[in-house]
């Protein structure tokens, strides 16, 4: 799925630092790597913490020092200064309006008539309007996914495609999901992102800024996936997105592969993760792929055997 050429993804080193809130490791990141994690770090620095310990107070000082002088921080602080309660109320009214209109865009409560294209509007907008523009676009995609009955589609979206504003749109996306989690469950947002260009890049940034959501997002993507993934564009995009997530968090790759078998979805992903996986002590006698495939085909679970046999037959054809 090469629709994110040249974009920098979150490294496994950076993701682990976020998971552990390891401020020393975060301080060692390059500026471009740190840029991807700013939404979460700025929220950490600004929001009242549940952890009142002395060690966290010291860590928070280090985070503030890390953020000082980073130009993009100011725009994220401005996004966080918005009245999210009022924004959520308008968003729910818009959802009801769309539902009554049978899913058509019709009139929008979040966004008044656009004078220019979506990207130009985004460029010239204040923080609140940027949040409204992105939220309206995101809800439209989420609604379309809900109405698609599992049929895959690719939605052209100027906002998610413009290379100049990808970082800013990603900031807005991460802040929206963090501040409005009941309106925008992270699994639904991840599913929606599969349907736009650069979706896997946005998805990895979103998960990196909420690292505890990794397993939940991966399971959601697998549950909604195809039983056989090789033959469809949607299956291939889903597989590549999940591989990218596992490259960001390689310690969980085998757990994600176990989810694939448990759900009997995306068999190609199970094979890909086996090939991607680099064990610390390689056993030259039997390759990991042979062990994996033979384990599925010779196992006692007839449902898994049938599912994986179908995948192999499809591959032979």
From TrEMBL:
InterPro entries: Int2_metazoa, INTS2. It comes from Ilyodon furcidens (goldbreast splitfin). It is found in: Nucleus. This is Integrator complex subunit 2. Belongs to the Integrator subunit 2 family. Keywords: Nucleus. The lineage of its organism: Eukaryota, Metazoa, Chordata, Craniata, Vertebrata.
